[in-house]
Amino acid sequence: MTPDLADQACVGALNLAAEGRVSTRELARAVVDISQRKSRFDTSHPTLIWGQALDCSLASGLLDGWRCVVGLRESLQLCYREVEARLEANASR
Question: Does the residue 57 lie in any domain?
Answer without folding.
Answer: yes
